[in-house]
Input
Amino acid sequence: MSEPTSPGSEPAAETPTPDSEAPEAQENSAIEATAPNAVDETPAEDTAPVIPAVEASKNFGITPEAYMLPATSEIQLLAPDGQPVPDSEQGPEPGHEYPMPSTEQLLKAYEKLVVGRRINDQNMALVRQGRMAVYPSSHGQEACQVAAAMCLGANDWLFPTYRDSVAVMSRGVDPLEVMSTFRGDWHGGFDPREYKVSIQATPLTTQLLHAVGVAHAAKLRGEDTVTLAMCGDGATSEGDFHEALNFAAVFQLPVLFLVQNNGYAISVPLSSQTHAPTLAHKAVGYGMAGERVDGNDLAALLSVLGRGVDLCRQGKGPLLVEAMTYRMQAHTNADDDTRYRERDEVSEWVAKDPITRMQRYLTDQDALDDAASEQISTHAEDMAKRLREAMATKPELDPQDLFRHVYSEPTTQLREQSDLLADELSREEA
Ligand SMILES: Cc1ncc(C[n+]2csc(CCOP(=O)(O)OP(=O)(O)O)c2C)c(N)n1
Ligand SMILES: [Mg+2]
Output
């Protein structure tokens, strides 16, 4: 078996074969020698291949392995009781130290948490009243979603899942527009281009490929755009997850993949989903860095995702972040979670709630007093009331909308179906 030649190795000396002496062969080799694509026979310079992880690790003065592997424990800046985690206990490893975000940024983020939780509760009530068709709860996962939206700049793109309504709202989309999707009265309530937020993907992991495509296009055009793609723990078993991460790594694209590990894919626990030591470790196989963060610690998330987006912007992406969190409610209103998880398990996570943790910290920092708390609650209540009132009105729907916007020029079949429906409706009215 011959040894494979590496890009920097000397080309092997060629032994002339009897054929190469023939006039025809000599003529051909002369053509090759003068052709524009002729193989350059001069020895290549000794250029070692550039391995992105090696280059990236130099920024931190650490080994490529230490750069790519996630920290040995979850990155945490605030303990569940709201106390800052001392550096000594956190045991920061080189390349894994993260600063505490400013109190101002945390206060802004805290307000989004409170609004997100209130809208979530409102939606659960609307579903029970039959005013909303389906709602995948984000209760417990608000910190991941607020931080994902807040770490992006104006030219960046967010690619959320069905569960990430709080991320979409935190990027500035009106809750009324977000929830019209879950009411089932329109394909999607907002213009993705206006907010640079993709529609919430229901087919698992398709949005990761879209995020990679947008990042690729931006890189080719020389645009300053980072994409952040969100998915769940279960989604990491999908083939699209592999294709998205591999393509992003091969082309060194500015994509931050955020996996919200909430422990379950509907009723399937993580232990039945993967044999990987952690989901963050999956990054290493693709040649990108992985990080694991407490997904209920808003401060840590803002810091880890903020740095991740910065690295992507500097051309040092892609990156994978696994956020350890928990879905406090059932998968959707169509699910009964008492059939597959113990109540004690759910109660354990109450103590790790992302909102009370941040509230305690901000109160201790004298950044949040009763008056400020009251103001935030009133704002959240007003938003819930507006949503409630809007959802109480019957939407005016035109069944012919089913056929509009499918193609710029409707096909013959669509026209036929549209005519059939029109005929049926006119007979119903008569
Ligand atoms: C391609 C595809 N396969 C299956 C489903 C059905 N499905 C909907 S949600 C879900 C579980 C996803 O779990 P996870 O990725 O952990 O996200 P979570 O719901 O916990 O946020 C499944 C299997 C789907 N929507 N799309
Ligand atoms: Mg999950």
Observations:
- DSSP finds 17 helices and seven strands in the chain.
- Residues 1-40 have pLDDT under 50 and may be disordered.
- The longest strand covers residues 255-261.
